[in-house]
Amino acid sequence: MKKTLVTMLMLATLLGGCADTHFVGGVVVGNTTPLTLLETNSQTIIEVPANPEGQTPFQMDNIEIGTPYDFVVLDSSNIICSTTDNSGTYTGFPNFSTKIQCEDNDGVRWSGNPILRNQYTADPTLLVDGDYLYLYAGRDETSFIHMQKSQCQDKCLSETLETAANFDITGIHIYRTQNMVDWEYIGPAIEAKDVPWMRQTWASHILEKNGKYYLFNCSPSRDIITDVGIKSVISLLTGGGLATGPSALTGVAVSNSPMGPFVDSGQALVSFQTPGAIDEVMDPAAFTDDDGTTYLFYGGGGHAQYVALSDDLLSINGPILEIRGVDGSNPMPELTEATYVHKKNGIYYLSYSKSKIGEAPSPLAYATADNIHGPWTYQGDFLGAVDILTNHGAITTFKGQDYLFYHTGQLPGVHHGNFRSNATRAVSVQHLSYDDLGSIIYAEQTELGVPEITNTQ
């Protein structure tokens, strides 16, 4: 029997006395077998002590690539377990944390956080379509490749400075789920190399309207030499804190299916050169109001704006508009980026990533209004700081439950001080709740994430 080192690090509580159980969950590549399927003829058995009163953390090191692994649980009873990542057949990331988690007695499976653990994901945007929830996310590609090659951990900032600084986000990728636990990878929605006006694929936003699917994307200009990642890392290393972003553009790609292919419209909708626009035309958030008008919000570095779009969403329809606060107040103090708009029970919510310029990490905060044009009232934070430079939230209702998606630095990657580089982000999820007055109840970040939805049909 081969031996595998097990160290105490990540979340787990395990199934008692049954080595031939199939644990299913996590990412499914195309229509193939789930990566977390553990075959009963495994050559390696890992013994992990059970803890019925809580959770037993562990991490697998020295993984032999391509070898499936079974898990034996010691001294436990009536515990149902499931994996939430590709721990059954590691094929490329042996230093990524392997997570098995359980719920006592009732057999509930949980998503785990981060929800996708075999690759970096960032800047989530969401779409409910039929029986599926679609997640569109960027991937920190340079760090993704670098981790695959070197398994760089906490002490390698100096050797990966250039890599981490590049923020090489080359595409937006699509995933979907029916139950919040099992995720299927669809493929890339759009890649920067295919869009003439894009250098990289920064944050995006997905919207369905009149049977078509619109993926709004932003990018630093191809004509700009500087990069927000380079500026931020240099600023951090010289004691200057987090730098603001460069000039940016936002455009849109269209598809007849949420799974693509998405075809770019050919030019940016709004850019730093649009009359009245700020430099940071980034992190788009599209929202269709009750009268059918769709608005595009964007912003960063302390300033956000919005503009109405044409009926086909391929051009702007009117002047750039400023976001107004009550009595001239600033409704988005300490805005970093990541504007997001949603509406619930007649209340409009405008959320964003918040931090003082030069400081990190950042929580999520929000403002409310009774009209899309405001005035907006600042309400405060609703998600605490994460261990990376910035955050990016997305909110949706799926099968009767409200969810908040965001990203953290919980996967292994490059550190600077007490927080991780933005180049190692990973999407997580929590339930979102509101009080009787419509205020968002402060959301707690957990390793468990959210439970499986069982009524998926």
Number of extended strands = 29
The top-level CATH class of the largest domain is: Mainly Beta
Biggest β-sheet strands, sense, barrel: 5 strands, mixed
Please state the oligomeric state of the protein chains shown. single chain
How widely separated are the two ends? 42 Å
Q: Based on helices, strands and strand pairing, what is the structural class?
A: mainly beta
Structure summary:
Helix content is 6%, strand content 37%. The protein has helices at residues 141-150, 161-166, 228-237, and strands spanning 6-10, 26-29, 44-49, 58-60, 69-74, 79-83, 100-104, 122-129, 132-140, 169-177, 182-191, 204-209, 212-220, 248-255, 263-264, 270-271, 285-288, 294-300, 303-308, 321-322, 335-344, 347-354, 364-369, 377-383, 394-398, 401-408, 415-416, 419-420, 426-431. Strands 2-11-10-9-8 form a five-stranded mixed β-sheet. Strands 12, 13, 14, 15 and 16 form a five-stranded antiparallel β-sheet that branches.
